[in-house]
Amino acid sequence: MFELKKGALYVVATPIGNLGDLSARAREVLAGADLICAEDTRHTRQMLNALGLDRPLLALHEHNESERVAQVLAQLQSGKTLALVSDAGTPLISDPGYRLVRELRAAGITVSPIPGPCAAIAALSVAGLASDRFCFEGFPPHKASARRERLNALAGETRTLVFYESAHRIEECLADMRAAFGDGREAVLAREITKLFETVLDGTLASIADAVAADANQRKGEFVLIVSGAPENEDAALREGRRLYAKLSEVMKPSQAAKLAAELSGAPRKALYGGE
Ligand code: SAM
């Protein structure tokens, strides 16, 4: 057993579906912490029960994070050892904790990571898409117009793109990605990682969207969507054509949008619409 530091906050990664993925060190920290800050105390209580642990919990979520900072800081300054967990995976990664960690570091508190599961990294590790350089985009905006704008802005990004998405929006998100990145862009959809119905679909954005449309089971659960980056040597006209096509297809029929985008950019119409 390692000795927990007094007055430190441990940021503890927890499983994303399989309790067996909790590390031995994570267990030790949770067992020894004076107080555990948790995104949802009921959820964390269930996990602690399953581990046979009983520790005091403090709710810390996106709606009360700022108000909690002073309270947490006071506990740490009085020599208590605290842990921060989210509902699943690594705190701060599309989860609460950023404001707390920032403020505690500014106050000179030791903030120490207990690394472990993270859905984005787990998906990337099995996707078979370039992983030497990637950018984590988290959840695309919920509103269609904002989402399309964000995706259009990413159309020329050459690094592998990693997104989180929920079951409610997976189909519309895939449709918007097809418009922004092209039907033929390579992609991987990792669903329910480490759980009973874990599925990793690979192919193009078009083939993955078709597979999701054809099977209701593929629309259930939690998703990481990984999209390969734009080719490094993609011709500037094609890149501009794709950008225009994605924008225009929001307001006109795809065939018309492709015709106009091709005229304006000089890219071949076929490359913009109906596959690569
Ligand atoms: N902090 C977490 C992490 O480290 O991965 C992510 C939290 S975020 C609120 C939840 C999102 O992560 C889900 O909507 C889904 O996109 C992704 N996710 C979490 N668990 C997953 C799993 N088991 N399989 C696939 N995606 C998962």
Structural write-up:
This protein is of the alpha/beta class and 276 residues long. The protein is built from eleven helices and ten strands. Helix 7 crosses helix 9 (236-248). The relative contact order is 0.12. The strands form two sheets. It has a five-stranded parallel sheet, with helices on both faces. Strand 8 and strand 9 form a beta hairpin. It has three domains: 8-117, Cobalt-precorrin-4 Transmethylase, domain 1; 120-232, 2-Layer Sandwich (Methyltransferase, Cobalt-precorrin-4 Transmethylase, Domain 2), CATH 3.30.950.10; 235-276. S-adenosylmethionine (SAM) is lined by residues 16-17, 86, 88-90, 93-95, 118-120, 164-166, 190-195, 222-224.
Write out the CATH superfamily name of the largest domain.
Tetrapyrrole methylase, C-terminal domain
Q: In total, how many beta strands? A: 10
Radius of gyration, CA atoms, in whole angstroms:
22 Å
Q: Could you spell the SSE succession in H and E letters?
A: EHEHEHEHEHEHEHEEHEHHH
Largest sheet: 5 strands, parallel
Mass-distribution shape: elongated
User: In the CATH scheme, what's the topology name of the largest domain?
Assistant: Methyltransferase, Cobalt-precorrin-4 Transmethylase, Domain 2
Poorly predicted runs are: none
* Ligand inventory: S-adenosylmethionine
Structural class determined from secondary elements: alpha/beta
Span between termini? 56 Å
Mean of residue pLDDT?
94
CATH class group of the largest domain: Alpha Beta
Question: How do the strands line up in the largest sheet?
Answer: 3-2-4-1-5
Query: With helices defined by DSSP (H or I, 4 residues minimum), what is the helix count?
Result: 11
Work out the strand percent: 15-25%
Please tell me the CATH architecture of the largest domain by its name.
2-Layer Sandwich
State the share of residues found in helices, binned by percent.
40-55%
